[in-house]
Amino acid sequence: MSSYSRIALVGDIGGNHARFAISDVDELTVTHYASFRRDLFASLEDAIRAYLKSVPQRPAMAGIAVASPLAGDRFAMTDGGWAFTHDGVLAATGAEKLCLLNSFEALALSLPHLTGHDLEKVCGGDPAEGAAKVAIGSGNALG
Hints:
By secondary structure, the chain is of the alpha/beta class. 17% of the residues lie in helices and 29% in strands. It has three helices and seven strands; from the N terminus they run βββαβββαβα.
């Protein structure tokens, strides 16, 4: 394993932007955040390589959430333009491990880790401890 074994590249690839950061997975910190317009890059791999040129750490692992269904060996962005494979993205990151997730799957997985300052109350009542949570989103529908 690399000397930065607990450093991860994290990404959120949406319809219009590719957002990246470096995360220390032990400290749960995020640094070197950057957001790129997707139309400036021919591929997800090109965007990853451009981002990694700007950071001093080389990640040992990567987790990237993508606004696209992820099934099979080849993936195509719902909003068009980029198609990629797990192995191609892994090679671009230079990491030893890669986890690709659908963006709503990643959002749902974050729910147990959110605290009060992460949340916005939108209706009456008080949350019940241990109750179910739900993630709702509109994708690019709200502009």
